[in-house]
Amino acid sequence: MPLTRRKLLAIAAGSTLLRRRAFGDPTPGLIVNSARPKDYEMTLAGFKEWITPAADFYVRNHHYTPDVNLADWNLRVDGVVNSPVTLTMNDLRQFPAVSHIAVLECAGNGRSFYEPHLPGMQWKQGGVANGKWTGARLRDVLQRAGGVRDSAKHVLFSGEDVPVGKQPKFQRTVEIAKALDPDTILAYQLNGEAIPLEHGMQLRLVVPGWAGDSWVKWVRHVEVLDHEFDGFWMKTAYRHPTHPVAPGTSVPPDQMVPVTDLPVKSVIATPAGGWAKPGRVKISGAAWSNGSPVTKVDVSTDNGASWRAATLGSDQSKYAWRLWELDWKAPAGEYKLMARATDAAGRVQPMVEDWNPSGYLWNVAAPRPVIISRLAPAAAASATPSSAAHPHGFQQACLTCHEEDIIRMQKLTAAQWEREVQKMTGWGADIKPEDREAVLDYLSANFKQ
Hints:
By secondary structure, the protein is of the alpha+beta class. Helices cover 16% and strands 28% of the residues. The protein has helices at 5-13, 18-23, 89-92, 138-144, 176-179, 232-235, 394-398, 405-408, 414-426, 433-446, and strands at 30-34, 39-42, 59-60, 75-79, 85-87, 97-105, 128-137, 154-159, 171-175, 185-190, 193-194, 204-206, 219-225, 239-241, 256-258, 265-270, 275-276, 279-288, 294-300, 308-309, 311-312, 322-330, 333-343, 368-372. The protein starts with a helix and ends with a helix.
C-alpha cells in the first residue's frame, strides 16, 4: 500500500514531543503513551546508543505494575516435570550466569503507521531497546526440577502484574524446543544491575530474537504443559496471519499463529527533527533482526531511486542491534531519506507494509522527509486535544481503568469504536445501556481517521 502523507509526516515526527506535552512525562527521556497502565516510548535519541540505559528503555504494560516483596519472593516450577521445585533468588544465582545483549521490541512497535488504521497502543518507532540481560538458562532451571517429561510440549509463564478490570491474567507460552534453547534465560539483571521494577523485577523471561510479547515480566510461576495453552494472550492476542492479506481483511482464527520472530528492520535516528543545515550531514540509526545478524544497511536520499551502503558500527552481537551511519553532502532542498537493512539469512527490509489485523511487526523501509536549509523551518503547530464535553457515563465507563491518553491516540472508524466498546464492556467497563449511544457518538466524532 502506498504511504500516505499522514503516514509520512508521522514517520518524520518519529518520537515527537507532541504526546509528551499532551499527556505529561513523569519519566525523563521517554514519551508517555499511557500513564495508567504504564506504556512509555523511547525517543529517537535512543537509537544512537548500542546499549540502551535502563532509564531510557521503553515500557509496555498490559496491566498494572505489581508490588514486589523481595523478602518472600520465590519461583515455583512445576507441571510435567519430574520433581517440582520452588527456588529463591539465591538459588537462581547459583546456576551458571549467562548474558545476552539483545533487542527487546514490542510486537506492536510501528502500529500507528499501518493503513487502514488499527486500534491498540499507537507506537511509532520507539517501542524497542537494546540491553544486556543476565540470568540463568531456563533449561538449567527445568533440569533442577528433575527435567521435563517426554510429554512436554509448551512452557507456561505467569506474570504477577495486576489485571485491568476483568482482563485475563497475562500468561504466555513458549514451545518446548525454544524453552530448552541455551539462549533462552530467566533474567535477573539488566545492564549489570537488578532488573528495575517496570521491566520485571525480580525475574523476566528473555527470549532473544523473539518479539517482546514472549518476554514475560514479574515471573513467579513456570509450568510445563503437555498441551497447547488456550488462554486469551495466546489464542486471541498476539497472533499473525500465516499468509499475506489485503489491508482491511478479516482473518479467520485458524489462519493465525502466535507472533514469534522479529523481522529485519532499521530506524533512522539522525538528522533529528526532519531538518539539517546544508553541508556534511550524518545519517545514522540502528538495525536489527531475529538473531540472524544484520550484514548491510543501504541508505537512500532520493526516495529509493539510488542507494549507498552505510558504515556498520563495530559493536555487534547475535541478538543485538547494529548501529550504522552514512556521511551525506547535502545541498539545500527537500528530500526523502530511507534506510533498508539486510541480515545474514538474506532477508531484506520490505518497501511495503505486511498489513495484519492487529498491527504487528511493522518493518517497512519507509521514506522519512527532511528539509535541508540554512534556517530551521517553523515548528508545526501542536495538536489541540478535543474540548468537547464528555457525554453522561463516559467518565465511569471509559476512565476508570486508564486515562484519556490512550483514547486520544486512537483514530478509528465508527465500526471500530463499536467493536472496541463491546470488547471493553466484556472486560468490565461499566457503560449503561442508556449511555452507550452517546458515548459511541462522542468517540466516533472526536477520535476518528
